[in-house]
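Section 4.2 – Deliverable D4.2 (structural model, holo form)

The reporting period included a commitment to supply a predicted holo structure for the target in complex with phosphoenolpyruvate. Inputs used:
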Amino acid sequence: MQTDACSVEDTIKMDDPDLVSRSSRPEGTIVEVNGIKIGGNAIVIMAGPCAVESEEQLTETAKKVRAGGASLLRGGAFKPRTSPYSFQGLGKDGLEMLERARNLTGLSVVTEVMDTRQVETVSRYADMLQIGSRNMQNFPLLKEAGKSSKPILLKRGMMATIDEYLHAAEYLLSQGNTQVVLCERGIRTFESSTRYTLDLNAIPLLKQRTHLPVIVDPSHGTGIRSLVPTMARASIAAGADGLLMEVHYRPEEALCDGSQSLHPEEFVNMMNDLQKIAEAIGRSIHML
Ligand code: PEP
Ligand code: MN
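Output (C-alpha cells):
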C-alpha cells in the first residue's frame, strides 16, 4: 500500500542541489577573501608549493609568486598522501609558517583541511579553507566546514561527476556557508600519459549550472610542468575565474609534486601570457 503521496520524480527533485543552482542566484556569487573578489571580472591567481616544507622554502616561494602577480599563497600543512610513508606535512608548524609568510608578503593564505577535528585550528591561520579532491565527499567534513565563517575552496573529486560535485557544494551551502569556490583539478580517465585529464568542459558547464565561482588547477590536472602554462591559458579562455597553481623555488628538491610545480621564472612568464588572454576576453588579472 502506498503511504506516501510523493512520486519517484518528486523525490529526485527534492534531492536536487538547489542552493547552488544558477537559477537561485542568476547574477552569480562573488566570494571575498580579505577583499579579494573571486567571481567578478578580475581573475584571481593562487600559487605556491604543494606542501609547506620549511620556512625558507615557503617564504622564498611566496615572495616570487607575489612579485609575479599571485594574490593568494597556497601550501598544504596537512597533506593527503597516497602512501602513509610519504611526507604528511608539517601540521601546526606549517600553519605558523603560512601565517608568517602572509605577514611578510601580504598574500592571503589558502590551505587544506582534511578532518573535522582540524577545521577550528586551520581556520585560525587560513584565510580560505581548501577541501581536497579526496575529501570532496567526506560529508562530516563538508558539514563542519559549512558551519565555518571562512571561504571554502572545494576541489572536484578525481572520480566525481558534475552532479556529485554540485551535491557536495550543496552540503556547504546547506550549513550556511555561501562563500564557496569550485576548483576543477582533473579527473581519472583511461589516459595514463598525464596524471589526470583536465576537464575543460567542466568550466562552462559549472558556470551554467551554478552561481558559484569556478577556478582551475592545471598543476594536478596535468601532473606535468611543461603542460601547465598552456592549460592555464586554456582555462582562462574557457571562462575560469581563477587558477590554483603549484610553484616551488626549487622544484627538483620538492617533497611533494615537484614534477608539476613551476619554477618561479616559468610562473612569471606564464603570468605575462595570461594577462593577454584575460584582456582578449575582456577580463583582467587581479593584482594586489
Ligand atoms: C593539492 O592541492 O596539493 C592537492 C592535494 O590537490 P587535490 O586534492 O586536487 O589532489
Ligand atoms: Mn599537490
